Structures are given as C-alpha cells and as structure tokens.
Amino acid sequence: MIDQSAYAVGDVHGCLAPLREALARGGFVDGDDRWIAGNTRLWFLGDLTDRGPDGVGVIELVMSLQEQAGESGGEVGCLLGNHELMLLAAHLPAAVPARPGETDAARRLFWERWTGNGGKESDSARLTQRHLAWVSGLPAMARIGEHLLMHADTLGYRGYGSSVEEVNARVAEILTEPVRLAQIDELTHMMTKRFAFASDDGEAAREFLGEYGGRQIVHGHSPVPLLLGKDPQEVTGPLVYAGGYAANFDTGTFLGGPCFVAPLPTVPRD
Q1: In whole angstroms, what is the distance from residue 260 CA to residue 11 CA?
Q2: Sign of the torsion formed by the C-alpha atoms of 85, 196, 140 and 259
Q3: In angstroms, rounded to a whole number, what is the distance separating the alpha carbons of residues 203 and 37?
Q4: pLDDT for position 98
Q5: For residue 238, which of 25, 96, 125, 249 is within the disulfide window of CB 3.0 to 4.6 Å?
C-alpha cells in the first residue's frame, strides 16, 4: 500500500519553473508558493542546483516550504547531494590545508569542478551565508517509515558509518568549519558513484537495507531516461527496480524530462 502522506522529489538541478508547476499540480502549494499540504511529508533527494537556470531560486523555495510545512504539522526535508557538496566546496569561507599553498589551489580546483558540472556564476553571485549554512546542515541519509532515502545509488555511504545516524554525524563533522579539504574532496567523490543496485535482482539493495534499515532504497542521482535509453519526455515516473528494493526518482528534469512529486512506492514483502 502506498503511503499517500509521504512523497519525494528527485534531482531538480535548478529547474525552478517545472518544480513549482509540479508542486502546484500535486496540491502541495498554492499559486503563491504557500504550503497547503497540511501534515504531508515531502523530501527532496539532493542536487537542487546546477545545470538548470535558477539553483538559488530552488534552494530558497525549499527553505521556505520547510519552514511553512513545519508550522502546519507537515515536513519538508532535503538530502545532501554531490552537487550541494561541489557548491559548498567552491564557496568555502574557510578551510584547513594539509600543505602551504594548498588552499588557493584547492579553491581553484573546486571552482572549476563546480562550474564544469553545471554550476552557474549567476547562482554564485546570489548565494548568501544563510544559503550556505542551510546547505551545509543537510543530512546525507534519512529513514521515512520503511523507506531509506539517500541521494546516490552507491555503497560508499558505508565508509562514513554503520547507521543513518552515524553517517549523518560524520558528514556533519566534515562540513563543520574549519573544513578539511581532503575530507570534503573524498566525500564528494564518494557521492558521485552510482549503479550499485542495478546489476542483480536486489541482493545488494537487500544487504544495504539490512545494515541501514528499511525495506526500500529511494534515491536520485542517476537519470532514469539515460538508464533506460529513453527520450526524457517518455519518462512517466520514478523507476522501481532491483526486485522492488530500490526506486530511482531522478526523472531527468534538467534533460527536459518531467518533474515529479511522487508518493514513496510500495515496499516489497518477502
């Protein structure tokens, strides 16, 4: 049975207009972007920014909805994605280098990595410390009932803890000033990995769920139209795969695919 009170959104990538349309179409907001969904739970799976035209606009909308939903008894959450990490690294206010001169070289590297992966100078010009503080406080994983939410379809989270709480605590430590450059670099690379659950009938997903809890992994990061070899407009919703033990919510919005605010899928029963 689908839990109609819990929903997720995949990678928005700065596509503010499609997100606003999807939220309004689903009855989450009114025409003025005001939360009207009561006690509904809505989670964004990371990669709010980059590639699309208005990453800061997406951040501001999610921040606003988070506050509004909390006042209405609902919940709007957001996970940390690899693009949030690249954005943070490119705008670090302070960092601890391992060697003299490393900080300036690393800043150039992180800036080039961010812009090379779709980071917009127009977003950089609008970013404030409030935005950066909010992004740096995002969790890496979350449990919503029997669903395990994470941005990337990778096993690399294991390197940061053996539970959701441990992973989130370790990631928060890494992103707390003063940031160590090597650590944020390693974390970013970890979260760029993908396809960990796509090569079998669900065994890898079941093992991962056995460690972190839940009965279905819900993630973004790997665009469904590219995985299926489809035109983005042909995608009709999130992809449930790996014997039902994983669901991919990255519907390729930045590629021109639809933006979906979809209910968390039915979990498998052995």
Answers
A1: 10
A2: positive
A3: 36
A4: 52
A5: 249
Cα(46)–Cα(81) distance, integer angstroms:
4
**Topology given in CATH for the domain delimited by 3-264:** Purple Acid Phosphatase; chain A, domain 2 (3.60.21)
Q: In the block, which residue shows the tokens 């009965």? A: 215
Q: What is the three-class DSSP state of 35?
A: strand
Enumerate the domain spans of the chain: 3-264
Is the preceding peptide bond at 178 cis, omega within 30 degrees of 0? yes
Instruction: Give the integer Cα–Cα distance in Å for 179 and 138.
Output: 15
Spatial contact of 137 and 78, defined as CB atoms under 8 Å apart: no
Regions of the chain short of the pLDDT cut 50: 1-3
CA–CA separation, 109 vs 188, rounded Å? 13
SS3 50: coil
